[in-house]
Amino acid sequence: MYQLIDGKTTSAKIKEEIAEEVKQLIEAGGKKPHLAAVLVGHDGASETYVASKERACKFVGFNSTLVRLEDTVSEEELLQRVNELNKNEDVDGIIVQLPLPSHINEQKIIEAILPQKDVDGFHPVNVGRMVIGLPAFVSATPAGIIELLKRYNIESSGKSCAVIGRSNIVGKPMSILLSQKADFGNATVTLCHSRTPDLKEITEKADIIVAALGKAEFLTGDMVKQGAVVIDVGITRVKSDKTKSGWKLLGDVKFDEVAPKCSYITPVPGGVGPMTIVSLLKNTLLASRKEIFQ
Fold first, then answer.
1. Strand order of the sheet with strand 34-40?
2. Of the residues 6, 92, 97, 232, which is catalytic?
3. Catalytic, out of 6, 92, 118, 120
4. Is-catalytic flag, 159?
5. Catalytic residue from among 6, 15, 53, 116
6. Does the annotation mark 15 as catalytic?
7. Domain regions of the chain by residue span
8. What is the separation, in whole angstroms, between the first and last Cα of the chain?
9. What is 140-273's CATH number, 3.40.50.300, 2.60.40.420, 3.40.190.290, 3.40.50.720?
10. Predicted TM-score of the model (pTM)
11. What is the CATH number of domain 29-114?
12. In the annotation, is 261 catalytic?
């Protein structure tokens, strides 16, 4: 019988730990950590995500600022707003909610954020530091997955691991973190993607599978060995006549087929998703301490 990796309960526990740390920080005369988010346009998913970040900040005792800009904003004006937040000494962490409108160069905006305030962990300086094992702000989703492995004491050392998906935000950093010489690293990792031949041959030998390619129910029961640990990062909204909203959320894993073969598996929703916001909070707390870039 598989054990469900409950990201919702785990993230709630971590939020309480952060709230306690912030309380002690303020009692000792320190300042409240401050997270600033920049939201361009009115994308529904981005609105929901930013609102949940604001609620999370309030719960743990952070200050939060939301800079709202229309999707007609020029790249120059957006860069100017980012620069203002860089210069604001009270702001510890900055996130620019992606995706951005097509007329704006996302990479240019990411690189405009000071690495010391880049709590999303997307700046090349943070990515480079993470790769060579220096202290860095690690991208929130991979950091959240490592935290789940720790909390559930899932051994990765010496294990065979398949990461499906090579995005800069999840797949690539995840493969590096799992292979690093560190606690809950030391795995032998195969990074798979759309050009990987015989993908099934790789996944059915893997002790740990991280599915992060954004294709609903891609990983099926015949691709997984008995006793595997499966982490489902995907989330796709599909039409359903069985729900009030007319939609349901599916992960990259065909849960009903895969779960019976697993030792541990994350659900969708309620698995990796809640851990992403918690990782962002942890990064903001780190940024407020100014310890990473000493």
1. 63-69, 34-40, 93-96
2. 97
3. 120
4. no
5. 53
6. no
7. 29-114, 140-273
8. 47
9. 3.40.50.720
10. 0.94
11. 3.40.50.10860
12. no
